[in-house]
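FIELD: query
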Amino acid sequence: VGPKNTLVVTYNSTGIGWYKSLNSYFDDCVIYDTRNWSKSIKSQLKNCVVRKKHLNQIKFEEGKNNYVVLNYEFFQQGENQKNANYLYEFLDKNRIDYFILDEVHSVKQREEDVTMDIEEQFINGMLSNRRRLMLQFINKLKEKNPDLYFMVATATPIINNLVEAKKLLELLHGENFNDIGTKKNSVKSAVSFHIG
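FIELD: result
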């Protein structure tokens, strides 16, 4: 697809795995290490240049494949405005071409009320702070780059009811599917959801 600047969000426990994978698949890339994950494996990272930088100090290198791997905990610092500021400072300096949410079940939503906006759902306990912050961030990414490639990945079964399936699709598409019913977990509801 040709994207040069990729942002990955994953668990702390899989961050090092992302560094190793990027290094093994790409010959010429720059990995920006904001978490000091590369310290223990730096000698194994032969193909990629690793730059240890604070998130708000990163400026992508022109013509290179640039990668930043963040952890989900960054998106649950609801009252810690400092992390949000760093994230948006980073976004002001850099254009993201490809956004990957690894272990996407970390931002799933099990309940909904289509009459409420995101903030109301958060206040009423239907939406985690992590998901709320992630939705805001994804909207900002798409605003800055309407041609953004977006991928989610997980090996964990994540769809336990129709609300979870609907909310995952809404996350991916960036739009609400309020016309799709989720009240009854029936075959008829699932088929209308699939066709919708």
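FIELD: remark
Strands lie at 5-10, 29-33, 48-52, 65-71, 98-102, 149-153.
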